[in-house]
Amino acid sequence: MSYETIQFGIRDGIATLILNRPDVMNALNSKMRAEVTEALTTLPEEVRCVVMTGSGRAFCSGQDLTDRAAAADLEGTLRKEYEPMLRAVTGCRAPVIAAVNGVAAGAGANLALVADVVIAAESASFIQAFTRIGLVPDAGGTFAIPRSVGAARAMGMMLFAEPVSARQAADWGMIWEALPDADFAEGVAARARKLADGPTAAYLSIRQLVAASTQNDMDAQLALEAKMQGQAGRSADFVEGVTAFLEKRKAVFTGR
C-alpha cells in the first residue's frame, strides 16, 4: 500500500515503518497518525516483528504545531487520532521495536515509549517538551514514564522539559538499550531478526501479561500466568522448543 507520510515495507517477516516527514523532523500530523494506525492494524500474517523508526535526523518531534485543526481541539485530536495510533502500537499482533535514531520529543517520545522494546542511538534524546508551550504531557507519557523510571524522574522530565540522553534513558530503565551510532542499524536489525525468528505467540502473551500486571493483584496475575502458560504449553512452538533442546539444535518456531 502507498502512503504519503510514512514508508512501509516487509522483508523476511520484518515490517519496517519509517516516519517520513524529515523536513519537519517527522512531526505528527493527522495524515501520519492515520497512516501509522492503518499500517499497524492491517499487518499481513507474514509479519512477525515491526521496526518503527524515523527518517533523517529525528525519530519524531511530536505534534505538528502548524496543524491548526488539531490545535483548535486538542482533546478531540487526542481521543480520535492519537489514542487509536497508540493502541495500534500496544495492540499490534507482532512485537514492536522503536528504533529511535534521533530526537524524540513530546508525543513523538511517547509514541516510541509505548513500543515493546525501545533501542536508541547514543546521539538520540527524549524530551517531554510540553511545558515549553504551556501544555501537559499526553500520548500516554504520564502512564508509561512513571512506570518505567519512577515518579521523581518522571516529574523532573515533565516539569523541566530538559532532554534526557539515550544513555541516561537506558541507565534509568526507560528504554532497553542505547547503541553507538555506528552500530545502531546493525544492532536494531539483529534484535528484530531474533524476535521475528522467535515464538511470536508466546511474545504476544508476555506483552499481555506485562500490561495486565499494572492493574492485577498477585492472585489475579498468578491466575493469568497459569492460563497463558497452559495455552503456550499446547502450542506447536512449545513442542518444537523442547524437541530442539533435547536434540541439541536451534529451534525453528512458527508462531503457532
UniProtKB/TrEMBL annotation:
So which domain of life are we looking at? Bacteria
**Molecular function terms in GO for this entry?**
catalytic activity
Coiled-coil ranges per the record?
Answer: none
Q: Which SUPFAM superfamilies match?
A: ClpP/crotonase
Where does the chain cross the membrane?
none
Name the protein family: Belongs to the enoyl-CoA hydratase/isomerase family.
Name assigned to this protein: Enoyl-CoA hydratase/isomerase family protein
